[in-house]
Amino acid sequence: MSKYFEELDYRPTPIGALSLRRRLDPKTKSEVIEIKLGEEFLMSSMFTASEEALANLALDNLSGKKLDVAVGGLGLGYTARSVLRHDNVNSLIVVDALEAVIDWHVSGLLPLGPELTNDPRCQFVHDDFFKMAVSDKGFGKHLDAILVDIDHSPDFHLNKANAHFYLSDNLAKMATHLKPGGIFALWSDALPDDGFTARLDGVFAKAWVEPVTFFNPLQNCDFTQSVYLASTKCD
């Protein structure tokens, strides 16, 4: 590794070139791990607060033991790790369409890889989360929570084919894979959007959005992202 930058892996994919990079940030003097798809940043280890909040906000709204959870989007693994830190989680399915991302965790190239792969509750699935979510089979069983961190926002998609998922009809299909009282949660890089919250409210028994604010050292100011949450009707 050079003092400031190293490309750990690079792979072409049907939706663009995928790269894993490690660099020393000159402002914070800290090591940063980043995943890029083309010119878009998928995730950076510098900013993980909202990815962790995605898991915690969802699971904190669930009671009971032996929770079954699915996460769409593996990334650097921070959402998955936060799920597994809840002792009442029984199983976790993490679905990612990019095989390289799963490989980086399984091989230990990513820092959280060993922790996730060594937890018997955690299973990686190489598949299209959006197709699974709206299919009749779904994730193979009904779930207590479905968490999604793939696109930048409900209106800013890494792949234009993902756009259909955010329509009311397909959100309703996804909701059929949740148990009564189950939670759907979605990460967004943008500020809360009342329009999307209203769309969720038309599908689920209850919907709301939680802003997640954290300090951005690169801009020397606070930055706000969003976690949308929705719950199915209890029995």
CATH architecture annotation: 3-Layer(aba) Sandwich
Mean pLDDT: 94
- How many domains is the backbone divided into? 1
Largest sheet: 7 strands, mixed
**Strand content of the residues, in percent?**
35-45%
As residue ranges, the low-confidence spans are none
By DSSP, the count of extended strands is: 11
Q: Give the SSE string.
A: EEEEHEHEHHEHEHEHEE
Classify the secondary structure makeup into a structural class: alpha/beta
Q: Report the CATH superfamily.
A: Vaccinia Virus protein VP39
Number of DSSP helices? 7
Q: Strand order of the main beta sheet, please?
A: 7-6-5-8-9-11-10
Radius of gyration: 17 Å
End-to-end gap: 56 Å
CATH topology: Rossmann fold
CATH domain class name:
Alpha Beta
Key structural traits:
single chain, 235 residues, alpha/beta, Rossmann fold, 7-stranded mixed beta sheet, 4-stranded antiparallel beta sheet, 7 helices, 23% helix, globular
Commentary on this structure:
This protein has helices spanning 49-59, 78-84, 99-106, 113-117, 129-134, 168-175, 194-203, and strands at residues 5-13, 16-24, 31-37, 40-44, 67-72, 89-96, 122-126, 143-148, 178-188, 206-216, 221-231. Helix content is 23%, strand content 37%. It has 235 residues and is an alpha/beta fold. Strand 10 (206-216) and strand 11 (221-231) form a beta hairpin. It is globular, with a radius of gyration of 17 Å. The protein contains 7 helices and 11 strands. The chain has a 7-stranded mixed β-sheet. It has a 4-stranded antiparallel β-sheet with strand order 1-2-3-4, with no helix packed on it. It has a single domain (47-231), classed as Vaccinia Virus protein VP39 (Rossmann fold, 3-Layer(aba) Sandwich), CATH 3.40.50.
